[in-house]
Design goal:
The complex is a heterodimer of chains A (about 270) and B (about 280). Chain A is α/β, with parallel strands linked by helices. Chain A has 7 helices and 16 strands. Chain A has 2 domains: about 10-105, Elongation Factor Tu (Ef-tu), domain 3, CATH 2.40.30.10; about 110-230, 3-Layer(aba) Sandwich (Rossmann fold), CATH 3.40.50.80. Chain B is α/β, with parallel strands linked by helices and about 280 residues long. Chain B contains 10 helices and 12 strands. The chains are: A alpha/beta (about 270), B alpha/beta (about 280). At the A-B interface, strand 7 of A face helix 1, strand 3, strand 4 and helix 9 of B.
């Protein structure tokens, strides 16, 4: 299913605090259901460009959760205010409208597509990167695919989204400050898990800060475990027009993360 | 309403949006991303940086090269429901001639835009900055094709009108302006450049007033057609550009924010003209 051509205005139905983050919901009356890993370009319809002409460009967000609603689909997004664009999205109130372009990009593969031997999935998320994994976990659960979830956070405030998006499943936690779970990196938990006997029968899916993704890719390469990473890059358009989101490609040169990603297979 | 070169990839957009793109194509002619004689991978990231009411880019003309374009892209672009203008750039006259010669033979190509103004590649050519160089290039290319030649002017000179006059004298059918303005950004926290290349080209509404001034000066100096662009994001902006002397208006950065900006702005413009004053 392709995205509707152009941007459309969707109403904000809810916005709530979740730790140091916010989760806001949009009612999309026109778009197809997104697949886990896909993203949308979002910009508030009003009060965009109001801080000395910024934010100017729309911002890319993976969908964290969705629910069919009476007259469309409810799309949930996890956001942390770290600049003019995310600050504005954090301030959204129900009834306001947001320009939506999407769903865009590719999606996570099924474990069997990644590796014919895969009996289950390991999901590794860091910080705000837990968002696309939340939707993936729900899809895997619906398909009776066993999934183990490892999430890492900086500190208590950055555990936003955890209780909201992963409320119904068992999660192993790591935190940089040791306030909860393993005191250290979430990749320590992954290393331990991959050292187990059944490691080869898993497919790993990860999203988080670049050093975390590098560590996940290295661990999976070492253990010869199939792996997909959901990546991020500065992006002006989301549909292949601006060539801003270039990342190194498999065959040398660069690829556009918006149309050839954001999910990238490694190993 | 047409697109500014390098701001809309119709092939990628068709992958994303499907045939709805063809049914509701937002431009009345399509200008390709600039092609060069040999393939280019483009510049190292980070390539873009948001600025007040605009953005800086340093993409570096990634493209498949002439052969790749002819074999892979041209057949797909020929399926668009509008005329195709191919943007070309080379570092010497021979390469320019090779490209124009090869593309002239293809019926799918309606016109050429000569990109002599990209701020993000070291072309070795200063065609866009010196009237005499522009004249020499046009004199070399004009005999090779009867198709319209549009010269894309740089705004990064003291007098774009002087270059436009030289292009007209050399036989150009039209000039288009403005390309992006040379610009930089520095992350105030790290002190590092926002763009890996150190600088890039500024676009968006931030440059519109400069575009209006330059289009006006060029339109007064030449009698060939002028394609006006630079920060156009509404019908009102397009009306201002036409009032400055442009015969045709192009949309660039606004398409990043609104993929249908071209048709939206055209509709806003005709609504304005229909309105009683």
């Amino acid at each position: 299913m392709t995205a509707p051509f152009g941007r459309r205005a969707c109403e904000v139905t809810e916005s709530r605090a979740s730790g140091g983050y916010r989760i806001f919901s949009l009612l999309d009356a026109d778009g197809p259901e997104p697949r886990p890993g896909q993203f949308y370009m979002l910009a508030a319809e009003s009060h965009w460009e109001e801080r000395a002409g910024r934010p100017f460009l729309p911002r890319a967000f993976s969908v964290a959760d969705l629910e069919p609603a009476g007259d469309g689909i409810r799309l949930d997004f996890l956001v942390e205010g770290i600049g003019p664009g995310t600050d504005r999205l954090c301030a959204l109130e129900p009834g306001e409208r947001v320009w939506v372009n999407g769903p865009l990009g590719n999606a996570f593969s099924a474990p069997k597509e990644l590796s014919p031997d895969a009996a289950g999935a390991i999901l590794v998320g860091g910080g705000i990167g837990i968002a696309p994994l939340a939707l993936l976990r729900r899809r895997l659960a619906a398909g009776n695919v066993p999934a183990r979830v490892l999430l890492g956070f900086r500190d208590q405030a950055h555990r936003g989204g955890l209780d909201d998006l992963f409320a119904c499943c068992e999660v192993a936690l790591a935190s940089d400050d040791g306030h909860v779970g393993h005191h250290g990196h979430v990749t320590d938990l992954l290393a331990r898990m991959l050292a187990g006997e059944d490691a080869e029968s898993a497919a790993v899916y990860a999203c988080g800060p670049p050093p975390m993704l590098d560590a996940v890719a290295a661990l999976c390469a070492e253990r010869e475990v199939a792996c997909e990473l959901a990546m991020e890059a500065p992006m002006a358009c989301g549909f292949g027009a601006c060539f801003g989101c270039a990342v190194p490609g498999h065959g040398g040169g660069y690829m556009r993360l918006c149309v050839d990603g954001p999910v990238v297979r490694v190993g | 309403m047409i697109n500014a070169s390098g701001t809309f990839d119709a092939i990628a957009a068709r992958r994303v949006y499907g045939d709805a793109l063809l049914d509701e194509f937002p431009f009345s002619a399509f200008v390709s991303k600039t092609i060069t004689p040999e393939p280019r991978v483009g510049n190292e990231p980070q390539r873009i940086w948001e600025t007040p009411a605009g953005m800086i880019n340093s993409i570096g003309l990634p493209n498949k090269g002439l052969e790749g374009f002819l074999a892979e892209d041209l057949p797909q672009l020929a399926e668009l429901p509008v005329p195709l203008i191919v943007s070309v750039m080379a570092t010497d006259h021979d390469d320019f001639k090779r490209m124009v010669g090869a593309l002239d033979e293809r019926d799918e190509v309606t016109a050429f835009e000569l990109n002599v103004s990209c701020p993000n590649v070291h072309s070795g050519l200063i065609v866009g900055e010196r009237p005499e160089e522009a004249l020499a290039l046009l004199e070399a290319l004009r005999p090779l094709t009867r198709k319209p030649l549009i010269v894309k002017l740089t705004p990064n000179v003291a007098s774009p009108a002087d270059v436009a006059v030289a292009a007209e004298e050399g036989g150009a059918d039209a000039v288009s302006l403005i390309n992006t303005l040379k610009a930089s950004a520095i992350d105030p926290t790290s002190g590092k450049p926002g763009i890996a290349a150190g600088h890039g080209g500024l676009s968006g509404p931030a440059i519109r007033a400069i575009a209006i001034a330059q289009v006006r000066a060029v339109a007064e100096a030449v009698s060939v057609a002028v394609v006006g662009m630079g920060g156009i994001s509404s019908g009102e902006d397009a009306a201002e550009m036409l009032a400055a002397g442009a015969h045709l208006v192009a949309v660039g950065t606004e398409s990043f924010r609104d993929p249908r900006a071209g048709s939206r702005i055209a509709a806003e413009l005709s609504e304005r003209s229909a309105r009683p004053t």
